[in-house]
């Protein structure tokens, strides 16, 4: 009887530990940010682009696999620097046909309709950061499809903190950002105006150190 009671007690204790409430390691308090150079987390950073499709609906695609660095100094937020690259070759859409077309080589060696078969990575390098509380205006140069243009990101701090030891223990910081570009500025004019020239960008940016 005592053995059965001890076993039941041990089982109950195990269940209680397993069911103990968990807390998220990330905090929305900017005070949780520590200085230094972070690396982009390619598995949790996404660039979502949206265009107008024939005036009927917005159409959205995604770029992932982002790499690069973010340097932060909490005492001097305006000194932040961003240098990230996005593999255009990993573009994803809901339509296999469209994804194929975006990465299709031009006919008979001519110019492709969109990015072509082996597109270079897109790269954004900041030139100026103006911080205001948990928000920042990040101006920089975007190189896409072999063309470099100035672009401004409107960024908002999302969260920071340290991952649990069992998940690596790295310090993390995350942001959301938005921007608008004209694809024709980067030599991607196919389908305009049936598919809009204006492209809205929404970015979920995750960095670790």
UniProtKB/TrEMBL annotation:
InterPro entries: Lipid/polyisoprenoid-bd_YceI (IPR007372), TTHA0802/YceI-like_sf (IPR036761). Coiled coil: none annotated. Residues 1-18 form the signal peptide. Pfam families: YceI. Gene3D superfamilies: Lipid/polyisoprenoid-binding, YceI-like. Keywords: Signal. The keyword Transmembrane helix does not apply. Residues 37-208 form the Lipid/polyisoprenoid-binding YceI-like domain. The keyword Nucleotidyltransferase does not apply. PANTHER family: PROTEIN YCEI. This is Lipid/polyisoprenoid-binding YceI-like domain-containing protein.
């Amino acid at each position: 009887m005592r053995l059965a009671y001890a076993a039941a007690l041990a089982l109950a204790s195990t269940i209680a530990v397993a069911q103990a409430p968990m807390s998220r390691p990330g905090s929305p308090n900017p005070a949780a940010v520590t200085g230094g150079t972070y690396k982009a987390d390619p598995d949790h950073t996404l660039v979502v682009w949206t265009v107008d499709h024939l005036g009927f609906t917005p159409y959205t695609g995604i770029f992932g696999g982002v790499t690069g660095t973010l340097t932060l100094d909490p005492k001097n937020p305006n000194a932040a620097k961003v240098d990230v690259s996005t593999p255009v070759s990993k573009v994803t859409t809901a339509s296999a046909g469209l994804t194929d077309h975006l990465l299709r080589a031009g006919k008979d060696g001519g110019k492709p309709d969109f990015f072509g078969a082996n597109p270079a990575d897109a790269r954004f390098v900041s030139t100026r950061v103006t911080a205001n509380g948990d928000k920042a205006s990040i101006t920089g140069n975007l190189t896409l499809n072999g063309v470099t243009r100035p672009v401004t990101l409107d960024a908002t701090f999302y969260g920071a903190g340290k991952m649990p030891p069992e998940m690596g223990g790295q310090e993390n910081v995350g942001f959301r950002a938005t921007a608008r570009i004209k694809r024709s500025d980067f030599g991607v004019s196919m389908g305009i105006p049936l598919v809009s020239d204006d492209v809205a960008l929404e970015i979920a940016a995750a960095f670790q150190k």
